[in-house]
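To fix ideas, we reproduce below one chain and its tokenised fold.
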Amino acid sequence: MTSSPMALRSGVITRYAIGSIGTGGFATLPGLVLVFYLTDTLGVAAWAAGIVVTVAKIWDVLIDPVIGGISDTSLHRTGSRHRLMTIGALALPVFFLATFAVPAGIGPAAAAVWVGLAFVLASTAFSLFQVPYIALPAELSARYDQRTRLLTARVAVLSLAILLFGAGGPMLRAIGDPYTGYVVMALVAGVVIAAGMLVATTIAPRGAANPSAPRSSWTSGYRDGIAALRRSAPFRALLITFGLQAVATGIMLAGANYVAVWVMRSDDALTFLFVALIAPAIVCSPLWNTVARRIGKERGFVVASVLFAVATASLTAAVWTPGSWMYVSVAVAGAAYAGMQALPMAMLPDVISHDARTSGPANAGIFGGVWTAGETTGMAVGAAALTLILTVTGYVQTVAGTTVTQPASAVAGIAFGFSLVPALLTLVSLIFLAGYRLRRADIDQPEDA
């Protein structure tokens, strides 16, 4: 089910983009503060914190293709993906609050189990919304440039959400004692996340229902997802590229709090880092739309990735001379980050429609489920990689109210994890992007004109 080639209405673009307030908030806050919450408030060892986050993400990877199949079934049986998205939007704030509501006095082991279970449930609710949300662009427009416009608008709002949650979350966290602060942060964030998601549910296309359509199963979700990967070379190339870049950004996101506290020696630096990263991303999102129109999405994606790698590599100097100069490099990385998000996500609906033309009826939910699983895997590996770096370099965990001194090796490890490692991963990802062969002419067929 795809739209006609008529122009997208501005109201549809706006409401779709507002959904990224929810997706950006959920992607940002756990990635930013969850590991830190475990190690520096609950006293959980870094390796154990890594396990907690990784287990939740593994669960995500397992269920995302299944949710993709369920989403496609819901579309065929009810005519819309609206129902699944709404369930996820309403359930997420409840479990998000539970994740950060560990009572004071609970031991590290019990706290780790509490957070792990609650975060798994929150992640499940998020997937119920995110997977069909990712599938919608292929059904909202059939045109190459319209999809870019839709997704660059989404990334502008996504960037704003990252800024608000990344800067505002730590500020809310500072209210009261550490335990109370995290609860306040989770409560406010959860409500805002749900509101953004609910707005986006209103633009899910509604078509003819077919109650007799076959239902999806656990196995069919995996089977269809594997089949999509096997037959679509552009999908494989794009997914691997985006997944590796998700590892890079996952490391940086999880490491930002540590960079602020232990490298820049300032709790306030975390807010400034996010402003430096996201403000340029908001401003530059329309620019990447222009770049894509002139040279194509895939070439624009390469330009953005190289710029990001150069900017993050320059942060390696922070190992020896940390300082306010870092904000400049982060700002350049932020401008590039907007393109690294908008362009591949605008390429995904092109992949879906191309697959429908060459292989039969579209299964946008399946593609969305596999895509979300890949992105989730990348972010999880990034967070886990940071905990491995912390463990290997001798990072000392603590509980709230206790002061420790970190060894120089741990501080250097944090700095390298925030700079050189993401730069190398981004450059390696471009090797796989060479396998992406779709161009504008493959999408805008004459019959669509």
Summary: The longest helix spans residues 326-359. The mean pLDDT is 86.
